[in-house]
Design brief:
The protein has 354 residues and is of the alpha/beta class. It has 2 domains: 1-46, no CATH class; 47-341, Rossmann fold. It is 36% helix and 18% strand. It has helices spanning 29-41, 56-61, 82-95, 109-125, 132-140, 149-152, 159-169, 185-199, 222-240, 269-275, 285-288, 292-295, 300-304, and strands at residues 13-15, 26-28, 50-51, 66-67, 71-75, 100-104, 173-177, 204-208, 244-248, 278-284, 307-315, 322-329, 334-335, 340-341. Strand 11 (307-315) and strand 12 (322-329) form a beta hairpin. Helix 4 packs across helix 7 (159-169). It starts with 12 loop residues before the first strand and ends in a 13-residue tail after the last strand.
Length: 354
């Protein structure tokens, strides 16, 4: 029988404890123990849910992937593949039998489909798979006799197989074509609740990108608006038991050549660093590797241009201050998922402190 405050006056009370959506916000520690034991008795997991990213080195560092209630930020210079990496994480999540929802403030739904098709083809057929440029050309062709996507890409390496794969788990990924004028935090929350109820399980939530989320009641100063948005996304993650992955933009002043981007270079950085559970920053390896690796080993220059360095600048539940690298496959809009720890010395070895 569950203990109450009257039955166990010495029990420690927990305010705002994370549980199922709609559950009590004030519980004793005894209640929480009883609830946990009940889950274990029925063969359920009592730990946080985990959504694997599919990037092996990152999942090891994150002890499995993104966790329920976490806010994860992904930043980096423009054009380095933040959206590509986030979409690949979504693809990997739904391929692992989880569900996901994408709020896209930057791309329309068909563009997302093209990118996912290229990512899937690459995962199936490797570097010889059909690329994003040919996929777009295939959709734009007006005089093809093909009556379906599978027929249209039947002659391409990995194309038809990618279409079938997307069809097999496409009902687990929900795409919301978002507007910087109308898709507010309240609308994001309502959509996440709807998807959770429809699928019977909470989704991984991707927001692309954070600074585009409108906050009508916020002051005109961007940093204050970003502070409100990031705090509410974190609250939503905790309340609904979902991981929220938000792509974040950088300050223009941080984008100069030869500079290494850090968390303090993100727009609205003070609030972002405080609220987030995990902060991932991408940099081009060629731009941030110590120059003696280039001066004395000229062959490295071209090789380094094909790699992106992911810095885990903050991680409340695992390793941080860790540098990983992933090989670019931008012709397919993706990265090689294995990754590895960076061995070379990097410039600007400043670290973010909690």
């Amino acid at each position: 029988m569950t203990s109450t405050a009257e039955e166990a006056p010495a029990a420690l009370s927990l305010t705002g404890a994370v549980g199922d959506r709609g559950g009590p916000r004030l519980r004793s520690l005894t209640d929480l123990i009883v609830e946990t034991d009940e889950k274990l008795r029925h063969g359920q997991s009592a730990a946080a849910r985990v959504w694997p990213t599919g990037f092996e080195a990152l999942d090891v560092a994150l002890t499995g992937g993104f966790r329920s209630g976490e806010l994860v930020l992904l930043g980096g210079p423009q054009g380095l593949g933040k959206t590509a990496m986030a979409l690949q994480m979504l693809r990997n999540t739904i391929a692992a039998n989880r569900s996901a929802i994408l709020f896209s403030y930057e791309h329309d739904a068909h563009s997302i489909l093209e990118r996912l098709l290229a990512i899937e083809a690459g995962a199936i057929a490797g570097t010889d798979a059909i690329g994003l440029t040919k996929i777009r050309a295939g959709f734009e062709a007006r005089h093809s006799r093909a009556n379906s996507m599978e027929e249209r890409f039947a002659s391409s390496r990995g194309g038809a197989e990618a279409v079938r794969a997307l069809e097999s788990y496409g009902d687990r990924l929900h795409v919301h074509t978002s507007s910087g004028l109308h898709t507010t935090l309240e609308e994001i929350r309502a959509a996440v609740v709807e998807v959770t109820e429809r699928d019977g399980r909470p989704p991984l939530v991707l927001v692309d990108y954070l600074q585009k989320v409108p906050v009508p009641e916020a002051p005109p100063v961007e940093e204050e608006r970003v502070a409100i948005a990031v705090a509410r996304l974190k609250d939503m993650a905790l309340e609904l038991g979902v991981p929220v992955l938000a792509i974040v933009a950088a300050d223009k002043g941080s984008l100069g050549a030869g500079r290494r981007m850090r968390v303090h270079d993100l727009r609205g950085s003070s609030a972002l660093a405080y609220e987030a559970d995990v902060v991932l920053i991408l940099n081009d390896k060629y731009d941030i590797v110590a120059k003696h690796h280039l001066v004395y080993h000229l062959g490295n220059a071209e090789r380094f241009r094909h790699w992106v360095v992911m810095s885990i600048e903050k991680n409340r539940n695992g390793a941080d201050h860790l540098e990983l690298e992933f090989q670019k496959r931008f012709e397919q809009g993706r990265f090689e998922p294995e990754g590895r720890v960076v061995e070379e010395q990097l410039i600007e070895e400043r670290v973010y402190q909690n």
